[in-house]
């Protein structure tokens, strides 16, 4: 509504002016309060976060561990945490009535809880622990005993999150089943091609086994990666004493795979150089020497030689090998091999280096392998990229042999 300014008495504020002044005053007050609260929140949150950093990892700080236990409850259980956030005091109804900023306090406590959930010692700490040991996947199986037929039944169901053992980023897993200490009579599942989450659903019977002997055995499962051209690569193993299992009915288990006992320990290192010539479309691989190779023979030594495979996509294109060095765990080879590789095929190319132990009376044993390509491990990828970055120059690097 329009009002004539001359109609008002001079010096007397109008009602509209008073109303506007009141609105401005209230707005400024709210802004100041909110700004003060924001700084207060930041100080409180910063203090809580600092305290969480100081307490994580100390013997009295069990917060991260209690959360992990809740996460790892058996199937069907609910991971519900009722423990209060450290440093947070519970409020009753009288506190809420007398506290002037209860809603703000609740908000701060909520934010503090979220920050503590993300602070070191919870998820990040758990992830760090997971990285500290290699994840080999897990396997599901069932076991039970038929007293009338004196038969032990073992059913291999499936596995999950198996590691990739092949250069193509996958594996061809199968399972061997033993009743230790007897290793002569073993049973095997079928091979599941290119599958890191295989389903077998195969049943195996150990017939004619008296119960008194069954409870003296250890069920041993070994998961391997099938390799048609060389020794099968071990992935992981599980062992369970049968005297600790209720065999009166089929019991189902999920077990994490552990490193295979025959694949543990250092396998040694190999020094080799790569030289890429883009104009000649070739790579020269020089096998220089090895050190601290794993002893594969009874006499505490090995007869090593090196195989070099050129792979393109999933196909083996060409193979070459060094001479055999008799009874030598630190052999010097100094042998070079040239492979023709067009530049446009370089990204799909892999060079597999396999150190073998020669055996005249049985199959040659694999001491260790190295995969060189764009998509191998960090050390191998670094060597490959250094080779590309320095054409026509031999680039040498030590590599740890792997199973």
List keywords for this structure.
alpha+beta; Immunoglobulin-like; 4-stranded antiparallel beta sheet; 16 strands; globular; disordered N terminus
Find the count of extended strands (DSSP E, 2+ residues).
16
**Biggest sheet, strands in spatial order?**
5-2-1-8
**With helices defined by DSSP (H or I, 4 residues minimum), what is the helix count?**
7
How far the N terminus sits from the C terminus, by CA atoms, comes to 89 Å
Contiguous uncertain segments of 5+ residues? 1-9, 37-132
List strands and helices in order, with pairings.
Elements: H1 15-55, H2 63-71, H3 93-98, H4 102-118, H5 123-132, E1 138-146, E2 151-160, E3 173-180, E4 182-188, E5 199-206, H6 211-214, E6 218-225, E7 233-241, E8 251-256, E9 269-277, E10 282-291, E11 304-312, E12 315-321, E13 332-340, E14 349-357, E15 365-372, H7 378-389, E16 395-400
Antiparallel strand pairs: 1-2, 1-8, 2-5, 3-4, 3-6, 6-7, 9-10, 9-16, 10-13, 11-12, 11-14, 14-15
Helix pairs in contact: 1-4
